[in-house]
Amino acid sequence: MADMKKIAVLISGGGTNLQALIDKIHGKHGEIAVVLSNKKDAYGLTRAKEAGIEAKYIPPVDENGERLDDEAYAKILEDEIKKRDCALVVLAGYMKIVPKSFVDAFPDRIINIHPALIPSFCGEGYYGLRVHQAVLDYGAKLSGATVHFVNEEADGGPVIAQRAVEVLPDDTPQTLQRRILENVEHVLLPEVVQAILEGRVRREGRTVFVDPSQDGWI
Ligand code: GRF
């Protein structure tokens, strides 16, 4: 994979989006150089290792056992990522605050996936099943997923791509979550990653343009 662009993936949990990147991007369009987790038992770490990808748990404490603040923690991530010369940082179910210092270290190179149509049902407190519960409580008829650039505001960076699914009358938070994950997230995230690696994504202010690919992907 010597000539491929490198990607760092940050996770906190199961890592099904990471798995989609392993299956569709790794070794084909780019190289996942490292997977970093703020949770020791994140199953995504196992997925990475099984694919032969370096995977590291970064504990939230320094060598003396003192708790690291958000900036200090993010600096460790930044160093791990820079050491490997990554062209792209993907937050795939990464549940920790990303401070401005980290955003500034990788301008237009950090993306996140959110399981709703931003700017609805996003921001502080909207994670996991809470997102889908809020969609159902509101009575929205469409939900979906959004891939966006990361800025210092939670889920607030420029939108790169979105895709919708219908909310069905008998949906539960769990069924809606699964349908969005399988039908949208696991397709959209690799498409966006490939487009970025191929240099087809450009941003003008808050508006992001994606040049279409030949193969039907964005
Ligand atoms: C996904 O729904 C993603 O949109 C959100 O966190 C979840 C992570 O799931 N940011 P997984 O760990 O990729 O399975």
Structure report:
The protein folds into two domains: 1-107, Rossmann fold (3-Layer(aba) Sandwich); 113-218, Rossmann fold (3-Layer(aba) Sandwich). Helix content is 33%, strand content 22%. It has helices spanning 16-24, 43-50, 70-83, 100-105, 129-138, 173-197; strands spanning 6-11, 31-37, 55-57, 88-91, 110-114, 142-149, 159-166, 201-204, 207-210. The strands form two sheets. A seven-stranded mixed β-sheet has the order 3-2-1-4-5-6-7, sandwiched between helices. Helix 4 (100-105) links the parallel strand 4 (88-91) and strand 5 (110-114). Helix 1 (16-24) packs parallel to helix 6 (173-197) and helix 5 (129-138) crosses helix 6. The longest helix is centred in the last third of the chain and has 25 residues, at 173-197. The radius of gyration is 17 Å and the shape is globular. The two termini are 24 Å apart. The structure holds 5-O-phosphono-beta-D-ribofuranosylamine. 5-O-phosphono-beta-D-ribofuranosylamine is lined by residues 13-18, 44, 92-93, 113-115, 181, 185.
CATH class type of the largest domain: Alpha Beta
Provide the gyration radius in Å.
17 Å
| Bound small-molecule species | 5-O-phosphono-beta-D-ribofuranosylamine
Give the overall silhouette. Answer: globular
Strand content: 15-25%
* Annotation, overall tally of beta strands: 9
Figure out the total of helices.
6
Task: Report strand order across the widest sheet.
Answer: 3-2-1-4-5-6-7
Termini distance? 24 Å
Structural class: alpha/beta
CATH level-two architecture of the largest domain: 3-Layer(aba) Sandwich
